[in-house]
């Protein structure tokens, strides 16, 4: 290397050093400026111009941001969604549908962390961007699947043009089948997905309307299913009587008449005939309650279930639930009754045949409450069934006296009828070709006794006379009560003189 070349090299090194020093100086100045800009944004506050959805979280702490979003959620929950089904409107608030912000804590964290992580230049660039445009973090809006399904089932599904099952009716000319029709129902899952999509894609946080999603609905009972119903499997009838009770019998029978029960399906008489109130066609009539006959809406419905129970027995359908009355009834032998009592007693049976059955019920021209069950007969033609009630034990009723302050002193009035208590077994006896092939106990029933109740009057202005009779009534001794009445009458007469 020549001297000249060496000098040139040393010169280039000096220039490079100056340039590097300059660059370092400039970089230091720039970094200082970046750091100064970034340091203006507090670590515990969200930067300006950051939104979650439509909610501005600028300058808020984490707690303040969560509170503000909670307030927005409350406002959102008050909005309604209106669904159209067959030109009908079904409405619900978003709150009823379980509307919520799925990731609100994550959104607030992302808002709080914006521009506060990564390299200095990246943070500066992100924060600088906020001065020109807002950053919007998108929340995920959700619905409670079960709550929304329940709303749709209750308010939207009834408006759909549902499939019509094939039906069967009995008339003088026999059994006629009416063909089924394909229909539509609300697609609950599809509708919920559509609502969620609207909420998360284009919702303006106001109430909104949309078409409910529908899908084809096939009938569950077809003409082909019912074509096997040709034979009477069993029937039974009881006298329908009269008065207000008769109206309840007719109403209950009409609710059960025409019922088709598919193979393996169970029927609850309570569920088909209830609720027992005026709105659903029932009147007040006598029924058992706490060992006495009292008037209640639907009084007499137990005779409907009892008559059907006997038709079920002769049809040899499977009895799932059956309860006796608290006391004996007069219209069937003991242990052949089936009581209905609110949620505690029900008659439930199952179609254990391989083909559908049809329940026909009526009160005929002879005032007989009748049930007949039709299906496809598969039993031996020589098979005959009998039912026999066996009394295991009997408890005779007594007499119970009760003081009555509304009845004149000394008057006696029967206010509760007597009923014999019994324990009974019901035997099912089967014959084939004229010979007995089986005899089995199919139920056991206990009926409580009810004492004859006699009210004894203690109504008088003479409190001492009333006390004498009341004391005698507490002994439940007829002779003492009669003696006390005589004594009290004398006391009352003396006080009047």
UniProtKB/TrEMBL annotation:
Pfam families: G5 (PF07501), PG_binding_4 (PF12229), VanW (PF04294). It comes from the Bacteria. Residues 381-460 form the G5 domain. Keywords: Signal. SMART domains: G5. This is G5 domain-containing protein. It comes from Dorea formicigenerans. The lineage of its organism: Bacteria, Bacillati, Bacillota, Clostridia, Lachnospirales.
